[in-house]
Amino acid sequence: MLAGKTALITGGSSGIGLATARLLRAHGARVAIMGRDSARLARAAAELGDVVTIEGNVASLADLARLRTELENAFGGLDILFANAGTAKATPLATTDEATYAQIMDVNVKGVFFTVQAVLPLLRPGGSVILNTSWLNQVGLPGRAILSASKAAVRSFARTLSAELLPRKIRVNADSPGSIETPLHRDQDQSDEAYAAYVARVGTQVPLGRMGRPEEIAAAVLFLASEASSYMVGAEIVVDGGRAEL
Q1: Which one-letter DSSP state was computed for residue 16?
Q2: Nearest to 80 by CA among 214, 220, 222
Q3: Distance separating alpha carbons of residues 163 and 179, to the nearest angstrom
Q4: Which domains are delineated in the chain?
Q5: What is the mean pLDDT of the chain?
Q6: ∠ CA 120-80-26 to the nearest 5 degrees?
Q7: What is the pLDDT of residues 161-181, one digit of tens each?
Q8: pTM for this prediction
Q9: What's the rounded Cα separation, in Å, for the pair 94 and 182?
């Protein structure tokens, strides 16, 4: 399905990004992953095999400039971008500080915009850009104002960047995950028992009765990356077990 294609996945060393890297490679793509944690990148590379790893932070324009250089050296050009890197924290109105606001917006909004800008010279005609949004961009959940706003901005990017890149025959779409079992949902010192209780509790809030799996998001990204979605542009695929829809 993706034979001869090249792909970049930001936040590609764990969770949704790593699952997507596995799937795109399985369908013939040459894959590069970017992440901030060198140890996680090394583990991902050991699992995936023939993959390009790039350490860096999407909120750093210097890191993104280096990303473009390393991608050009490795691939020459790029066919698929999955702008997946993101962060998530509760942001209650009464207690959220400026540092938390800046961190979320820098990674989730600035990071996505400037990642696309950085690789734009490498994107080939017929390329596909997939932006990772969230079910939170569609609902009003208390305590999630900044996170939800950041993902709503990314949803907007899927439309506006689509319009801007159409003359270059580059499609931009979005995937919108629900609550997915990834490291982002697990506290650093949380026990297995406590995490299992958290997964069960969140699962009861989902119409399908469980949290989602990273592989279920990866399948949507594969579809958007491939010619199977050739008539889709500026769209968003919601994969959330019905949480924002029912």
Answers
A1: H
A2: 222
A3: 30
A4: 6-238 (3.40.50.720)
A5: 96
A6: 160
A7: 999 999 999 999 999 999 999
A8: 0.96
A9: 28
